[in-house]
């Protein structure tokens, strides 16, 4: 693996971990959430620096179905990140509390919720679109390909994604995405590991959707 690809892969891994932790919000404390969010913002900026060639080529070349999906998804992700960043600064009580921002907290709270949950879904789909690259790297280090191993891994991924459907419904994620609920409810007695496991399964669900979107849009 070349150094640049390794950097991108490492960055994506760290961003995925941060994204999961950010979804815990009150379970890890508001101050921690704000600092992690600030760190996420910096990583997003670094991510775009690493991929500046892709950004420069947006208006160049032919648009295949896959490229259209990828470009639209990135645009939606950027909007979500901007929404989360702006609303996060407006709501900040720790990291950006020195800024003289007054009012608009209700709007900022709603914007933050919508941006966070849609951003979570879009990020998972985005990871799925690029999962093939991870698999290609892994395959280079496997001396003997195995059809049985491949199907076992696929079955395991689909099993997790299947649980992700349950977790998505059980945690009422869609109601937050469309502002049917304007406050996120946390069970403070719930082990954080269980919370993270549920959100990881939801991420796997949308990651699988992204993976198969790439697979069939490239045919």
UniProtKB/TrEMBL annotation:
Question: InterPro entries under this entry?
Answer: Di-haem_cyt_TM, DUF4405
Q: Where are the transmembrane segments?
A: 9-28, 34-51, 72-96, 116-139, 151-169, 192-213
Tell me, which GO biological process terms does this entry list? respiratory electron transport chain
Occurrences of domain Flavinylation-associated cytochrome (ranges):
73-131
Q: Which UniProt keywords apply?
A: Membrane, Transmembrane, Transmembrane helix
Which GO cellular component term is one of those annotated?
membrane
Name recorded for this polypeptide: DUF4405 domain-containing protein
Annotated source species: Qiania dongpingensis
């Amino acid at each position: 693996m070349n150094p640049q690809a390794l950097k991108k892969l490492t960055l994506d891994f760290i961003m995925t971990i941060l994204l999961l932790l950010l979804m815990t919000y009150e379970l890890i404390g508001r101050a921690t959430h704000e600092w992690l969010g600030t760190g996420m913002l910096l990583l997003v900026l670094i991510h775009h620096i690493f991929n500046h060639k892709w950004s420069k080529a947006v208006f160049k070349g032919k648009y295949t179905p896959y490229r259209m999906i990828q470009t639209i998804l990135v645009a939606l992700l950027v909007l979500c990140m901007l929404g989360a960043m702006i609303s996060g600064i407006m709501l900040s009580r720790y990291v950006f509390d020195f800024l003289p921002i007054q009012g608009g907290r209700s709007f900022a709270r709603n914007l933050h919720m919508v941006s966070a949950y849609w951003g979570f879904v879009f990020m998972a789909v985005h990871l799925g679109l690029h999962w093939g690259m991870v698999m290609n790297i892994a395959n280079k280090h496997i001396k003997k390909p195995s059809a049985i191993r491949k199907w076992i891994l696929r079955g395991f991924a689909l099993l997790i994604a299947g649980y992700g459907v349950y977790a998505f419904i059980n945690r009422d994620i869609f109601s937050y995405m469309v502002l049917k609920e304007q406050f996120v409810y946390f069970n403070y007695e719930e082990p954080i590991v269980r919370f993270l496991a549920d959100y990881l399964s939801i991420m796997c669900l949308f990651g699988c959707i992204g993976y198969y979107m790439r697979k069939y849009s490239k045919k």
